[in-house]
Design a protein that fits this description.
Distance between the termini: 31 Å
Order of helices and strands: HHEEEEEHHEEE
Number of helices: 4
Strand content: 15-25%
Radius of gyration: 16 Å
Mean pLDDT: 92
Shape: globular
Length: 220
């Protein structure tokens, strides 16, 4: 991995902060996914914050389970969950241990490893669509439940690492309601994205499901 100030891995103290500080500060950072085929690098352009026990939209709102246990551990680890019976989503755990919160990585711009990403996302019409949405991002990077609990602060050669990159300027960062979140958390402006980035996913409001349908959570 090439050296340089923008190539320094973020340390655990970066993630050991309130989630509403960490989330917008992740924009412009570089996510590196090391695979046997080679690394894929992605510049983060869209994220969502989930505040754990204080957030009805969070998987951790009702307490610890086998599924969300990583969120209750130390910061700087990956929380990967499976949703809708077919997709994985990648999140980064924030805040002090025992106080679960996390940032859902919603979208990014692939910087390196386009060929590997296109192999995993053959339906992407262009590079901007490779990681345009949380399930697409995880698919393009080859992320699944096997990476749940991965320490992203373990070093640049870990399966997942976050590099300093070039953080987005505050004037570039926009915020609004989270995608697909209903109930008490529907209006929280905890989705953050870089203005004008073509890789940012479209916003979709929560659509209530019919009473007899299976309820599934989308956030963290």
């Amino acid at each position: 991995m090439t050296a340089g100030p923008d190539r320094e891995p973020l340390d655990r103290s970066f993630f050991d902060r309130p989630v509403l500080e960490v989330a917008p500060d992740l924009l412009g950072r570089v996510l590196v996914r090391s695979t046997p085929d080679g690394p894929i690098e992605l510049r983060l352009t869209e994220v969502e914050a989930y505040a754990g026990l204080a957030d009805p939209g969070s998987h951790a709102y009702r307490g610890r389970t086998e599924r969300n246990a990583v969120m209750f551990g130390p910061p700087g680890h990956a929380y990967v969950y499976f949703t809708y019976g077919m997709w994985h989503c990648l999140n980064l755990v924030c805040g002090p241990e025992g106080h679960p919160s996390g940032v859902l990585l919603r979208a990014g711009e692939v910087l390196h490893g386009h060929a590997w990403a296109h192999q995993r996302r053959p339906k992407a019409r262009n590079d901007h669509e490779l990681a345009k949405g949380p399930a697409r991002l995880a698919t393009a990077l080859g992320v699944d439940r096997r990476l749940d609990g991965t320490d992203v602060c373990a070093g640049p050669d870990a399966a997942l690492a976050i590099l300093t990159g070039y953080p987005a300027r505050p004037a570039q960062v926009l915020s609004g309601p989270r995608t697909g979140v209903g109930g008490e958390g529907a209006t929280h402006p905890w989705r953050f994205w870089i203005d004008g980035e073509p890789s940012v996913s479209p916003y979709r409001a929560h659509t209530p499901r019919r009473r007899n349908s299976t309820r599934r959570q989308v956030g963290t």
